[in-house]
Every structure is written in structure tokens, then in C-alpha cells.
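TICKET: design request
STATUS: open
ATTACHED STRUCTURE:
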């Protein structure tokens, strides 16, 4: 059994003791992220919101306002005065985090702590936690080292056995991915990770898209957990999902992969889209604002006619016209050009849009492609 002496050493039988807080590099930490009981991001709230290591909690040792205050004093006064103010603020914040978040943690609780790069903020927190007696690990190089590792991994990602689900707008690709995920298949749902449905009308109400860095962190985190011996189902996305760009190497892998062509009758596609885009059905003004983005493609007269349909509640007719005049032609123009396997795609036909229909389709894909699910 390990013991802890007064010098912050964890002593194991016949094993050289490790002194805490220990500093570990990104190559040592990333493969064992699940081995930490907590991942603590000591940066400010704004830094954390932009991107962070998956699963991390935010415990700022200097919040946004305090960080600006200390930084300004560094520039306008001097480092010594700034450090005095900063030390007082850091001490109070660390005390609060211990009292509110960590006081009930057992002796063997093992946290990983990181900040931006230099280690001053994470080092302060890690030192106090180690002095209490916890085996605290500080990430050398901080978030910047993590970000470099993610960028490198996405520039040459592992090669999953992608199965690309293709289909015209409203054919139920996203619903099928959701059901596949629910029955244990491996799914990379880029629209879910990007908080966007991937078209001019794809913005999700009350859910802003993440930053590009956060999007890439989410993709990286999904990819690293996949079993490369099993297929990964993914939708035939374009290079951009809303304002976010799919990493080039990943996009190339998807476009070279075998395809599944999901088909659904146009009346059922209209029904599905009306169900999935209820926020537009309930707010014609919001819908019309988005339709204005298509004016350059379809002309002002056509957009005005679609505005009138939205205002008059003629939603089924409007959705049908959008499919015929905008979405379907765009799909036909792009799918063969961008997805090499589409010509030999396995056809999967949905009879309706009920739960049973999607469950049946998902189970057939698992039966045909994923025998380990």
C-alpha cells in the first residue's frame, strides 16, 4: 500500500517514491487522461470557454477581471507590485476552490492541473493541493502543449473504417446516426459536435457554435476512443459545418470511404423537416431572415414568394419548394464530385419517419457492417 510522508512523497513497496506535485509532459499525460480523478483548468473563464481538455473543470486562480487587473499592473507599474496583488488574489481563489470543490476528496484523489503555458497559475494550485497530501500532477506546457498535440493528431488522424451515410436534405441522416449511437454503434456526428445542422437553415436556437479549437477538441476526443477494428458511421458533410471547418485530413478520409445512400420519399422528407425545424415553424420572421441568405442564388422575387408562404403558414409548400429548387439540386451537384464511393453506395430505403423505421434501418446497418456491436 502506498504511504504519504511529510515531504509530499508517495512511497510504494520497492518502488522509488514520486514527489508531488509532479510535472508531466503531454505525451505522458494524454494516454492516461482517464486515470485522473479530476482535470483542473486553472485559467480564466474566457480562456476555458474558448477550448479546454475534454472533461476538465474550470477553477480559475485568476478570473477574467483579475487577470486583466494583474496584467495591467505588470505593464503600468512593475512586476513586483503585480505579483503582490496577484498572490493575494490567487491565494483567496485557491482557498475558495478547496472549500467548495475539493474538501471532501479522499487522500488518494489524483488531479491533473494545467494553465496556459508557463505554469505559474497551475503551479500555485498544484503546490497547495500536494501540500495537503493529494498526488497532484501539473501538465508541463499547459493548454498550449495540449493544443499542439490535438493539431498534430488531426493532421494525421487514425484511419477509421468510415461508412458515410449520404442522402438528400430531410432524408433522416442525423436521426439515423442518433439511433445508431443509441444501440452501440460507433458514430462521428460532426453536426452534433459543431452544434449546427450544416445548411443555411442549420443554426440551432439558443445553442451557439463552439470555437474552431473546441470543435477540433471534440473531434479529437471522439476519434481517440474509437475501436479501429469496427466501422464508424458518419454523415456526408461538406468542408464546413456552419462557421466551423472540418479538419482537412479527416475530410479526405471521409470522402474516400464507402457510402450508404439513405432514401426517403419527398413528402416524408417534408414532414421530417417540419418536425426537426419547429423553431422556424413557430417563428416565420426568423425563418425569413435566414431565407434572405439565398437571395443571390434565387433572386429577390423568389425569396419574397417564400417569405409570403412562411408568413401565411404554408410551411409544407415552402419546405417542398426549398427541397426541389435549392437543396436537391445542390446535393446532386456535389455528392458524386465529393464522395468517391457514392456510385457504388448501398441503398437503404426508409418507408416512414417513425422511431421503428429508424431503429430498423440502424439495426440493418449494424447487422451488415458492425458485427461487434
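STATUS: resolved
RESOLUTION: sequence designed for all positions
ATTACHED SEQUENCE:
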Amino acid at each position: 500500500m502506498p504511504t504519504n510522508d511529510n515531504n509530499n512523497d508517495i512511497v510504494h513497496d520497492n518502488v522509488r517514491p514520486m514527489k508531488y506535485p509532479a510535472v508531466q509532459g503531454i505525451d505522458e499525460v494524454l494516454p492516461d487522461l482517464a486515470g485522473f480523478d479530476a482535470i483542473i483548468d486553472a485559467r480564466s473563464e474566457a480562456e476555458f470557454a474558448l477550448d479546454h481538455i475534454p472533461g476538465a473543470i474550470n477553477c480559475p486562480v485568476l478570473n477574467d477581471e483579475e487577470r486583466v487587473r494583474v496584467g495591467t499592473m505588470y505593464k503600468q507599474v512593475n512586476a513586483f507590485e503585480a505579483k503582490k496583488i496577484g498572490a493575494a488574489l490567487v491565494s483567496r481563489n485557491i482557498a475558495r476552490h478547496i472549500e467548495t470543490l475539493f474538501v471532501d476528496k479522499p487522500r488518494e484523489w489524483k488531479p491533473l492541473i494545467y494553465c496556459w503555458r508557463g505554469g505559474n497559475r497551475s503551479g500555485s494550485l498544484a503546490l497547495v493541493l500536494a501540500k495537503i497530501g493529494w498526488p497532484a500532477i501539473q501538465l508541463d506546457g499547459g493548454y498550449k502543449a495540449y493544443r499542439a498535440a490535438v493539431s498534430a493528431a488531426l493532421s494525421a488522424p487514425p484511419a477509421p473504417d468510415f461508412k458515410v451515410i449520404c442522402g438528400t436534405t430531410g432524408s433522416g441522416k442525423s436521426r439515423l446516426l442518433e439511433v445508431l449511437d443509441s444501440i452501440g454503434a460507433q458514430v462521428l456526428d460532426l453536426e452534433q459536435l459543431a452544434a449546427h445542422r450544416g445548411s443555411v437553415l442549420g443554426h440551432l436556437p439558443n445553442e451557439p457554435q463552439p470555437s474552431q479549437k473546441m470543435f477540433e477538441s471534440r473531434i479529437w476526443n471522439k476519434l481517440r476512443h474509437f475501436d479501429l477494428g469496427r466501422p464508424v458511421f458518419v454523415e456526408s458533410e461538406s468542408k464546413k459545418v456552419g462557421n466551423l471547418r472540418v479538419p482537412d485530413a479527416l475530410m479526405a478520409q471521409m470522402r474516400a470511404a464507402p457510402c450508404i445512400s439513405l432514401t426517403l420519399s419527398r413528402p416524408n422528407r417534408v414532414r421530417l423537416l417540419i418536425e426537426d425545424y419547429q423553431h422556424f415553424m413557430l417563428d416565420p420572421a426568423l425563418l425569413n431572415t435566414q431565407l434572405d441568405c439565398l437571395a443571390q442564388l434565387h433572386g429577390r422575387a423568389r425569396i419574397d414568394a417564400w417569405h409570403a408562404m412562411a408568413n401565411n403558414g404554408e410551411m409544407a409548400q415552402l419546405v417542398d419548394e426549398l427541397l426541389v429548387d435549392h437543396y436537391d439540386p445542390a446535393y446532386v451537384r456535389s455528392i458524386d464530385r465529393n464522395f468517391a464511393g457514392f456510385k457504388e453506395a448501398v441503398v437503404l430505403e426508409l418507408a416512414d419517419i417513425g422511431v421503428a423505421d429508424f431503429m430498423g434501418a440502424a439495426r440493418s446497418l449494424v447487422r451488415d457492417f458492425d458485427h461487434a456491436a
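CLOSING REMARK: The mean pLDDT is 93. DSSP finds 17 helices and 15 strands in the chain.
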